[in-house]
Design goal:
single chain; mainly alpha; Receptor-associated Protein; three-stranded antiparallel β-sheet; two-stranded antiparallel ribbon; 15 helices
């Protein structure tokens, strides 16, 4: 039995879409007619559908919120005693998003055919990454799939919550910066030239500050558009260069060496690594395989290479904390907790504590930085406006002195 995506017309002539299971497309059309629907198109759902040009069309990935919700629903249904096939069907039916319905319907069809859940999810690598699939495969092997899904749901929800906190915290500073840039551009490009032109027409010699402001204003008027085009071109060039691993590695290493930003990046990547390795180790994934997968979820290339080197050293009999300590990229608290976990046999618990500790420190650091940025931005904006006002008022003061 396979999943089919359909489009049909109801009795009122309104178009409806959805996913329905059946052995063949013909059977699905018959089922639609039995529901008083006129089928327009019925296509089997698959992760890779060939277009007329022969290229593969991939299903776009689910948002972190949708993935967390789907995982949590599966865990709850399985823990309540529902069979896996029924749980997958309920998850697909309860979600109103077509992408989720299509993906979960297709996964259920593969499970009905006899595939494991991890194997069925492997058809959608853009939706279910290697961490997700390997953890589920381990959970299926040991017979604790619902527990593994609970851990994955917690992981997905924590990442989604952190991303949401960051987005919310950055909204005001970004808006403040954009408004400041627009206000300064308006003052320098329009207001300042109009005001200072009055003094030029009177033949009055302008103060140095006013002349400097007039020069900046002329640069904004004459080259502002070109500057914007140049910045846009630089963005595209930067994105092109960042595709190369060697260039991206150098940039990441340079960022890690910076005093404040480097520590923040190390904390974020360390927390992600610790959380991932904790989930994999607690789910029964072999430690070497867990290290390899954990390395791939680290965005920073130098830290990723450090974990991969650690995996090689562990394969030769070394300890995880010793291998990571040599890189110098991971915080000492994380190294200490991993060492404690290896000595006491509680590596999973220590990794989770290390992840929680790093996440708290990261949240505190980001909150502090944003709390300092907002008043600093206001002070800088006020200072620039003050300079502009003084540059405009100084000729007026000099004129008053001459008259007096």
């Amino acid at each position: 039995m396979s999943a089919f995506e359909f489009q049909a017309l109801d009795a009122q002539g309104q178009k409806s879409r959805g996913v329905m299971e059946g052995d063949t497309a013909r059977q699905v059309r018959q089922l639609l007619r039995q529901q008083n629907l006129t089928p327009l198109s019925v296509n089997e759902v698959s992760n890779r559908q060939r277009s007329s040009s022969g290229k593969h069309l991939h299903v776009r990935r689910l948002s972190a919120k949708d993935l967390a919700l789907v995982t949590r629903q599966l865990a709850v249904l399985l823990r309540s005693g529902a069979p896996l096939e029924e749980a997958l069907r309920n998850v697909a039916q309860q979600n109103h998003k077509k992408t989720v319905q299509r993906v979960m319907g297709s996964v259920r069809s593969k499970v009905v055919e006899g595939f494991s859940l991890a194997a069925a999810m492997a058809d959608y690598p853009s939706v279910f990454n290697e961490l997700f699939r390997s953890t589920i495969a381990a959970g299926e092997e040991v017979g604790h799939l619902e527990g593994v899904l609970d851990r994955l749901a917690d992981f997905a929800e924590s990442r989604q919550a952190m991303a949401q906190r960051l987005t919310t915290a950055l909204v005001y500073p970004v808006l403040l910066t954009l408004v400041a840039i627009l206000v300064l551009a308006g003052l320098l490009g329009y207001v300042v030239p109009q005001v200072i032109q009055v003094f030029d027409n009177m033949g009055q010699e302008l103060p140095g500050l006013t002349q400097g402001l007039l020069l900046v204003s002329e640069l904004v008027q004459n080259y502002g558009l070109w500057a914007m085009l140049g910045l846009t071109a630089l963005v595209f060039v930067w994105r092109y260069l960042m595709r190369g691993r060697a260039f991206r590695f150098r940039i990441h290493r340079m960022l890690l060496a910076m005093p404040i930003l480097g520590n923040l990046i190390k904390g974020i990547n360390s927390a992600r690594f610790s959380r991932t390795l904790s989930i994999l180790a607690g789910s029964g994934v072999p430690i070497l395989r867990a290290l390899e997968i954990s390395a791939r979820v680290i965005p920073s290339l130098p830290m990723r290479d450090a974990v991969e080197e650690a995996a090689l050293m562990v394969r030769e009999g070394g300890l995880i904390h010793k291998s990571l300590e040599q890189s110098g990229y991971f915080p000492l608290m994380t190294i200490y907790m991993i060492a404690n976990g290896e000595q006491t046999g509680q590596l999973e618990e220590m990794l989770e504590r290390a992840a929680e500790q790093q996440e708290k420190e990261t949240d505190t650091a980001i909150g502090t930085a944003l709390a300092l940025f907002e008043p600093m931005m206001i002070l800088v904006m006020g200072g620039l406006v003050l300079v502009i006002v003084l540059a405009i008022l100084l000729p007026i003061f000099e004129m008053n002195q001459l008259i007096g």
